[in-house]
Write a structure and sequence with these properties.
This protein has 259 residues and is mainly β. 13% of the residues lie in helices and 53% in strands. The protein has helices at 3-6, 219-228, 232-250; strands at 11-14, 18-26, 29-37, 42-45, 49-51, 57-66, 70-79, 82-91, 97-104, 107-108, 123-137, 145-158, 164-175, 178-188, 191-200, 207-213. Strand 4 (42-45) and strand 5 (49-51) form a beta hairpin. It is globular, with a radius of gyration of 22 Å.
Length: 259
């Protein structure tokens, strides 16, 4: 069948690529090694990802299938300066039950705006590292037990107008049940901001608290900068939320604030 028919829904592929695969063993213990050089290809994923031609990308994997029933192994995905190691443990192909872990290197965010379609037209910089884990029915990822750890260092997201967030330092821990921000800070309009947050049951009945401190932050300037870096694809929904926050602030503070 054509390659496009084998790709997941939403994935678009055109152009050339280089692929090699090796199979060894028996049905009781079958090993697979594969390498796929996707650099020459154009690759898209819905409205999220758009990899141009000749942008460095490669995928390799080493997998073991035991007794035709349990699949385990490792994947490595290289995209520009980012390497993601993906480990698969005890996946039952029939039920979809297993464990999946993704860990990246500390990678440079520069040029990611050319890959992530929602960030087109923005300037992004800094460094990031990501750890993710899923356990359960992997073909229904939203129902699995999951964990995310995100670290950002000296990160910035700036719009074409010059508004945005700079000097961001973020430590985010999130699971199926809770979200925690610690040692998190950023700069908006030249004013430093520190954030601490701990929220439980945030998907259904959020409980917890958020603390925002700054020696001289104008809350309206913060909202203007957040609006400026809200991608168009999610802007309508988020603008409604930001408008409600702005309305609540205006009930207590004049706009603009007196100097």
């Amino acid at each position: 069948p054509a390659l496009e028919s084998l790709l997941p829904a939403g994935v678009g592929f055109s152009g050339g690529s280089e692929f090699d695969v090796t199979l060894q063993g028996t049905w009781d213990y079958l090993s697979l090694h594969a390498n796929w050089n996707l650099s020459p290809a154009i690759l898209t994923y819905g409205t999220v990802l758009s990899k141009p031609k000749d942008f460095p990308m490669g995928i390799s994997c080493d997998l073991i299938l035991k007794a035709g029933a349990l699949l385990s192994g490792d994947f490595s995905v290289r995209l520009h300066q980012t390497t993601a190691k993906i480990s698969l443990v005890g996946l039952d192909p029939k039920t979809g039950i297993g464990e999946l872990t993704l860990l990246t290197n500390k990678f440079d965010l520069k040029d990611w705006e050319t890959l992530l379609s929602p960030l087109a037209g923005y300037e992004i910089s800094g460094f990031a590292k990501i750890l993710m884990h899923w356990k359960g029915v992997l073909k229904e990822m939203d129902k699995t037990e999951r964990m995310l750890n995100l670290t950002l260092e000296d990160a910035a997201l700036v719009s074409s107008t010059g508004l945005g967030i700079r000097k961001a330092e973020v430590l985010l821990d999130m699971s199926s049940l809770s979200l925690r921000l610690k040692e998190t800070s950023f700069e908006v309009g030249g004013s430093p901001v520190q954030v601490e947050a701990e929220i439980y049951s945030f998907r259904e009945n959020p409980q917890g608290g958020i603390q925002i401190t700054s020696p001289g932050l104008d809350p309206f300037a913060l909202l203007d900068n957040l609006k400026a870096v809200t991608p168009p694809s999610v802007r309508q929904k988020e603008m409604v939320r930001l408008a409600k926050i702005e309305d609540a602030i205006q009930r207590f503070l004049p706009n603009p604030l007196p100097l």
